[in-house]
Automatic annotation (TrEMBL), chains A, B:
Ranges in a coiled coil: none
Any GO MF annotation of the entry: DNA-binding transcription factor activity
Domain of life: Bacteria
Protein name: HTH-type transcriptional regulator
InterPro entries found in the cross-reference section: ArsR-like_HTH, HTH_ArsR_DNA-bd_dom, WH-like_DNA-bd_sf, WH_DNA-bd_sf
CDD domains: HTH_ARSR
Length: 114, 114
DNA sequence: GCATTATTCACCCTTATGGTTGAACGAATA
DNA sequence: TATTCGTTCAACCATAAGGGTGAATAATGC
């Protein structure tokens, strides 16, 4: 069986990022900094409740964090968390590169029987 | 409304990458190069059919491609497609960086009324 | 033609997901 | 205290998603 490590975190991260509305929220937060739920919701056609749910998803993936000031919930981006996605991507790329390297070595000695 | 460009492609890409089994398939392909559906399925506990479905998802996200030789379907990774995810991530990061830059400028002239 | 191999297709089931509406709650304010 | 504001909670609905089994298809080998 393939190494099914602790990738539940990465799964949550990618799942959260896979919804267009949620990505738009992340973009808004990146552009404007911390925003209230209501202000975020104003930018979308979906209901406030729907946006609230999306924020909860982003929150449990730790892509955003919430700072409750008085009755206002300030949502802000956790830019460092995005790097985790990048790490996965880079790991996969290096695995790929490594294989190509090995393959090349085999080619040079013309011993390439699979 | 936020710029909801043509991100259906990115959505498919991230959705495809958000499943652990599919990510494991991608890792296997990166490690071993092109593999048959059956050989891929051997690495997982889920049924062959389930793996076949996952491959179809990866295929429609263009993360893998299929080369049918005789009755065998060789699945291989499309490493360039992974770069799209990285592009999204980098874009978001630069938006973030840009905002911080602007913010810093504002701070220097102490004119920061939101 | 029949069996075998490799893979998909067609269903079915269960759970997750994204959306809605309406009630509830907590805090400020009149 | 009643009202308004900001937000979540609780149902509910429709659809998608992941998983399974069994039949179908396609190609090879006897």
């Amino acid at each position: 069986m393939v190494e099914r490590i602790d990738d539940t975190d990465l799964t949550a991260l990618l799942k959260a990022a896979s919804d267009p509305t949620r990505r738009a929220i992340l973009t808004l937060l990146a552009q404007q900094g911390a925003m209230r739920v209501t202000d975020l919701a104003r930018h979308f056609e979906v209901s406030l409740n729907s946006v609230s749910k999306h924020i909860k998803t982003l929150e449990s993936a730790k892509l955003v964090s919430r700072r409750t000031e008085w009755r206002e919930h300030l949502i802000e981006l956790n830019p460092d968390r995005l790097a985790h996605i990048d790490t996965w991507f880079k790991d996969l790329q290096s695995i790929w590169a490594l294989r190509l390297e090995k393959l090349e070595k085999l080619m040079t000695k013309d011993d390439a029987h699979d």
